[in-house]
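README: folding subset

This subset contains proteins for which both the sequence and a predicted structure token string are available. Records are stored as plain text. Below is the entry for Chromatin accessibility complex protein 1 (131 residues), shown exactly as it appears on disk.
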Amino acid sequence: AEMAAARLSGTENRLVSLPLSRIRVIMKSSPEVSSINQDALFLTAKATELFVQYLASYSYKHGRGKEKNALTYTDLSHTAEECETFQFLADILPKKILASKYLKMLEKEKRDGEVREDDDEGEEQEDEDEA
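--- output ---
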């Protein structure tokens, strides 16, 4: 295994584009990970690259960017929302909305939350009255 790792270390820069040091830092940020085998690091980097390529090509083929010969953020977020395979990315690639629309959504959530809080208080008072 050491020879394989040594062989990889000489050529890995050409085989993967992502920086292995960054991937190592991300992997080590997990509390369950104490040490990372060089082969595991390389395979994680390569799998990540292949996943990103697949996401990009799928989004390009199924998005509107193809008309403009470009891949757009909207294509990526649409893929995350519509394709079951990529739905786990929906929080990371949310649909773009105008700031004004977002602020209105926050205001509505705040109002709805206040209404719910009032309802809860009413229920608590009823419980106290019964006791």
